[in-house]
Design goal:
This protein is α+β, with helices and mostly antiparallel strands. The chain has eleven helices and ten strands. The chain has one domain: 3-Layer(aba) Sandwich (Beta-lactamase), CATH 3.40.710.10. The strands form three sheets. The chain has a five-stranded antiparallel beta sheet with strand order 2-1-10-9-8, with helices on both faces. A hairpin with a 5-residue loop joins strand 1 and strand 2.
């Protein structure tokens, strides 16, 4: 038993997790998640981490899942890092025009400022990018902080290695395969949420600011939040790809922090990749996994 626990500790260290005994890896919760996954098509990866206890489990973790818009969470961390350093300000104005308000992409920001030729605050663009998953806002932020490589390097310096941020929204829209360059292990995204919530990145003020934006997320309400009580607080970021001509949806994802009835918190990351199921089925799988986690951790 001692040897088994030591092996688990080593495994989690290699996966960039805090070195703790992973009791949950052989728990009834993992078995239930695996049964839910068996009902769905495609590849599904899951990471669960109770923040206060650090108890962790993963399912199908060691796969490079395309993140899609989930990567707007690490982008926001990189932006707020520069805000904390005084290089950027949430009050600073950013020019909007036809060059950065592209058509044929998801952009509530463009819909609001359809004529362009105006300036808005960084605060407004961050809110649109994270809580409404605005693609134009995303690329504006990448340009502001030095591009995808700058964000990728920043996240790696935080100690989160199994993640790649390599392409903008504009680049992903240009070719189907480009989206796979933005990949992540579920455990890596869980670790990033852990460092965000329980660490010193970003600052305390910026952490509260970003938590409020994540809580206001309007996309993917049928996923992590789908089967939870309506009053439950979930700070999360979704990601969804298009469906190609062969009926394959590259990504239907959700990742975030659920507040439990006892005031504790659990991180849940679910990546659904290369699925031929319809939207309803994919969303239901994520919702059922979330409900299983909620039921298990709310006992």
């Amino acid at each position: 038993m001692v040897l088994f626990r030591k092996k688990l500790i080593l495994i989690m260290c290699l996966m960039n997790f805090i070195p703790v005994i992973v009791f949950a890896q052989s728990s009834p919760l993992k078995s239930k998640i695996e049964k839910i996954i068996d009902k769905a098509g495609g590849k599904i990866g899951v990471a669960v981490m109770e923040i206060e206890s650090k108890d962790t489990l993963t399912v199908n973790n060691l796969i490079k899942y395309p993140m899609q818009s989930v990567y707007k969470f690490p982008l926001a961390l990189a932006v707020l890092n520069q805000v904390d350093k005084g290089k950027l300000s949430l009050k600073q104005k950013i020019r909007l025009d036809k060059s950065n308000l592209r058509k044929n992409t998801w952009s509530p920001l463009r819909n609001k400022y359809s004529k362009g030729d105006t300036s808005v605050t960084l605060d407004e663009i961050l809110n649109y990018t994270v809580s409404q998953s605005d693609n134009n806002g995303c690329d504006i932020l990448f340009n502001l902080v030095g591009g995808t490589k700058a964000v990728n390097d920043y996240i790696h310096k935080l100690g989160v290695k199994n993640i790649s941020i390599a392409a903008t929204e504009k680049e992903m829209h240009a070719s189907w395969n480009v989206q796979y360059r933005n990949w992540c292990y579920p455990s890596a995204m869980a670790l990033l949420f852990y460092k965000f919530y329980n660490g010193n990145i970003p600052s305390k003020v910026s952490r509260k600011y970003l938590m409020n934006i994540l809580i206001k997320t309007v996309t993917g309400s049928e996923r992590i939040k789908g089967l939870l009580p309506k009053e439950v607080i979930v700070a999360h970021k979704t990601g969804t790809s298009d469906t190609n001509k062969d009926g394959v949806t590259a990504a239907a994802n959700d990742a975030g922090i659920i507040t439990l009835p006892n005031g504790h918190h659990v991180i849940l990351v679910v990546f659904v990749s290369n699925s031929r199921d319809n939207d309803k089925t994919r969303n239901e799988v994520i919702a059922e996994i979330s409900k299983a986690v909620w039921d298990y951790d709310s006992k």
